[in-house]
Amino acid sequence: MQLGVLSGKVAVVTASTQGIGLAIARRLARDGAQVMISSRKQASVDKALEQLRAEGLDALGTVCHVGKREDREALVSQTLKRYGAIDILVSNAAANPFAGRVLDCSEEAWDKIFEINVKAALLLTKLVVPHMEQQGGGSIVLVGSVSGYQPFPDIGPYSISKTALLGLNKVLANELAPANIRVNCLAPGIIKTQFSSFLWLDDSLRQQLERTIAMRRIGEPEECAGTVSFLCSQDAAYITGETIVVAGGLQCRL
Ligand code: NAP
Predict the structure, then answer these.
(1) Could you tell me which residues are beta bridge partners of residue 90?
(2) Taking all residues of the chain, what is their mean pLDDT, rounded to a whole number?
(3) Domain parsing of the chain, residue ranges
(4) Cα–Cα distance between 98 and 36 in angstroms, integer?
(5) 19: CA distance to ligand 1 center in Å?
């Protein structure tokens, strides 16, 4: 039997009960990793676990709202208790509670966006790094967005939080390289999930958006997953601090 590129690795993926996170969890497991999935609701965790196990994949799950310290700690301790290690962290959770001009964003909405999208990614990284250091290395992938390069209209605060992740990626990569921990970022374009449904449910808006994409279509969650598996694999052993855009040729630059 041929071993997968992630055989022997243990991966933690946040916000992984649907959409891009679930596609990443599934792909990491298919590539041989043991995967701990998580999200805010037990029912979502149970449903996703059922799907993964029906496919014969090695996955466990637990509730983790990334904005709650006790949930982040439980995610890490549960993974260590049940799988005995953490080699990979995929920080995928994001919140987008506000649409409109950035100047109209309430302090509460701004704080929520930065707490979930940026601060929780850092705090979770802080929790896993000591274990990765002890094991001699690891790989972290932050899920950003093309909106971090080119802010999307009406979701300025969310876009700014994703720009912050590009900076966090660079800083963490630099600081963790001596510990043999690589940190990279995935920047999806417009991907067909519930999160982005306001962009593609309306036919005329979708068609307008598709005209801005070189490949003239919205992406699928599975089209993001292979990039994350690659970044966590030995093939990416000399890659750190990078952001890979998966956006069908949507033009974006910082
Ligand atoms: P999605 O399909 O709507 O899935 C969201 C997932 O996140 C669900 O599993 C949800 O489960 C979980 N979740 C939500 N809030 C959470 C929290 N505070 N803590 C933990 N889990 C939470 O979303 P998606 O489109 O795949 O988005 C995933 C990531 O991709 C996000 O970082 C997003 O910014 C990024 N992204 C998406 C697109 C796109 O077009 N879809 C484009 C660029 C970037 P529960 O409800 O059970 O918590």
Answers:
(1) 13, 141
(2) 97
(3) 10-245
(4) 30
(5) 7
Task: Give me ligand 1 centre to Cα 15, in Å.
Answer: 6
The single residue listed with the structure tokens 């992630």 is: 6
Would the pTM of this model clear 0.90, i.e. be above it? Answer: yes
As given in the structure block, the two tokens for residue 89 are 């962290």
pLDDT digits (tens, 9 = 90+) for 104-127: 999 999 999 999 999 999 999 999
The Cβ of residue 102 has, within 10 Å, a number of other Cβ atoms equal to: 14
CB of 169 shorter than 6 A to ligand 1: no
Q: Who's near 231: CB < 8 A, 6+ residues apart?
A: 139, 141, 182, 184, 186, 239, 244
Calculated CA dihedral for residues 216, 184, 254, 25, nearest 10 degrees: 30
What's the rounded Cα separation, in Å, for the pair 205 and 165?
28
pLDDT at 1 over 70: no
Query: Which ligand 1 atom is the nearest neighbour of the CA of 48?
Result: 9
Within 10 angstroms of residue 44's Cβ, the number of other Cβ atoms is: 19
Residue 41 in contact with ligand 1 by CB distance below 6 A:
yes
Ligand 1 atom closest to the Cα of residue 158 is: 34
Question: What is the fold, at CATH topology level, of the domain defined by 10-245?
Answer: Rossmann fold (3.40.50)
Q: How far apart are CA 9 and CA 4, in angstroms?
A: 10
